[in-house]
Design a protein that fits this description.
Low-confidence stretches: none
Number of domains: 2
Structural class: alpha+beta
CATH superfamily of the largest domain: Vaccinia Virus protein VP39
Number of strands: 4
Helix content: 25-40%
Mean pLDDT: 89
Radius of gyration: 17 Å
CATH topology of the largest domain: Rossmann fold
CATH architecture of the largest domain: 3-Layer(aba) Sandwich
Shape: globular
CATH class of the largest domain: Alpha Beta
Number of helices: 4
């Protein structure tokens, strides 16, 4: 992904548990659709807090499930069945081994189960030293934006 980026800003690859920045060096940290992939979220949040200056902002974009029952059902069918099928089919047609492609797209909806519910995520951010923690549902509740300011 970094090789394909077309940004003027410097890009850095690193370990989320040991970011290659000095303490208090950054004004902001953004993470998109990765939080659910960590075995433990508190150490990641602590590391984000370490590299942010006081008053620095954290923004986490992550998947979610709609709270409205009909939308939740539709999302479950779409995200849990259609996306893995279509994604695996397209990836296999592009030359990826079929079994590997199918497994990758089945992992996507399964990974959401690892994400704690919103109130717990907000609590984890607060416990990691973030103030003004807020959560904003997006796109009918299929995504969420969690933000906080380093105390």
């Amino acid at each position: 992904m970094l090789a394909a980026a077309r940004e003027g800003a410097p890009l850095v690859q690193g370990d989320a548990l040991a970011l290659p920045f000095r303490s208090g060096e950054l004004d902001g940290v953004v993470c998109g659709f990765a939080l659910r992939n960590f075995a433990a979220i508190p150490p990641v949040l602590a590391e984000c807090g370490r590299v942010l200056r006081p008053g620095g902002r954290l923004a986490l974009l992550e998947v979610d499930a709609p709270s409205q029952p009909l939308l939740r059902l539709g999302h479950r069918v779409w995200f849990g069945r259609v996306v893995p099928f279509v994604g695996g089919f397209v990836a296999a047609r592009s030359g990826a081994p079929r079994a590997r492609a199918a497994a990758a797209y089945r992992y996507l909806p399964a990974s959401v189960a690892y994400l704690p519910p919103a109130p717990q995520l907000i609590g984890l951010m607060s416990a990691a030293g973030f103030a003004s923690v807020a959560r904003q549902p997006l796109s009918g509740g299929i995504a969420q934006l969690l933000t906080g300011t380093r105390s």
